[in-house]
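hi! just following up on the protien thing from before. the input was this:
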Amino acid sequence: MKKILAIALIPMTLLWSCSDDDGPAQDPQPNMPPESSMAPNFENFEEDGGRLAAVNNWAYAATSVGVYSAILYSNLVVPVTAFKIGLNQDATYNTETELWIWEYDINVAGKGSYNVRLTADVDGSDVDWTGYISLAGSFEDFVWFEGKSNLHADAGSWTLYESPESPSAWLSVTWSDVEATGVATSTFNVEKEGNFFESSITYTANTNADFNRSVTIVDTNASNTIEVDWNKPTGEGRVKSEAHFEDTAYHCWDETYNDTDCPS
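and the predicted 3d structure came back as:
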């Protein structure tokens, strides 16, 4: 009698296990890559009044950082803005395509209003990211940026493309953000042919350092390497450039952005 009852219960058990109450299987939602992976914060080097002309060490650092900041925030302002705004959006899971999808609209001053569709394709612990951007009446689903990361978003890469009219790679990025060490690093390599081809800028945020932000610029056009360290939020910092200063020493500025002697 017990055997007959057990056999009779098997179909019911299978029905329960396949119940719609469990919902369709879906990949785990990945963590978004950090903002610094595509949009590092250079606000300490924004020109303020006549500051560029008034001080030397900070001004040289600001001008050098500004060249690469312009590549991101002027030439690539649309994909960078699309990614930054996406960090604050909610995602949905599409069971047919098996993709996590963030879809939203952005407005870029002087450029227009765009529709953005950011997708994440999860394969085990690996994630493929694709940023599709559309401009009504002009282009649709242009892949303006794409990248890879792991599920927890502590390491990955990006490729940013120039424009729908010229869809070649402009920048490639490798990045890491390790919470346990408090260190985040992003290296931007110029892929576009021209004066800055194969130049790079590496941005590091280190919560444990006195100078908790740093940038290393490798300028292949001028055969020069520039190292900049600063404290956020005080603003004090230092810069090193053998080609500019004709020495290998650091040159410092204080909290008022005026030149000062570097600590020995």
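The CA atoms of residues 6 and 13 lie 10 Å apart.
Confidence is low (pLDDT under 50) at residues 1-21.
cheers
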